[in-house]
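Illustration 12: CUB domain-containing protein.
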Amino acid sequence: MRSKEDLNTTVQLSNVHLAPGDAFLVYDGDKMLLANFTARLVARQILVGFQQNTTFVFIPREVKSQSSWMVNYDTKECDVNIENSWTTSFSSPTYVKESSKLPLQCTYTVTSFQPADYIAAAALTAFSLTGDSSLEVYGVQGNSNKTSKLKVSWS
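Figure caption equivalent — predicted structure in token form:
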């Protein structure tokens, strides 16, 4: 959560489960390691604070590009880049009531390393849009077979 005066952001991860041999790394930016969790060393909830951006890296027991994921979140622009093939869910950032009046545009970019016979799927499940808020979802641009757009607006 973040107030409008606070440029620091706190991220809380819940129900973190790691198998033996897996690792979960949290960086402030992309170089300064904040936490390194393994199956032997992980809390039920992880609370992380950072200044500008953070990087989450999951390293599975067998390191393959098809089974790893990474999330980058920029607190100023609210852009999220996800490189993944097996992410189950990802929630948008939560902002306190005072900051909800500020204009904010979040962009989530997902890059999939799925084999050619798999397709990426997304489920948008919970919304709290008010006023003139809107939600737009775009597929791959330039490919009519894989492009779709969903726009939900409230006024």
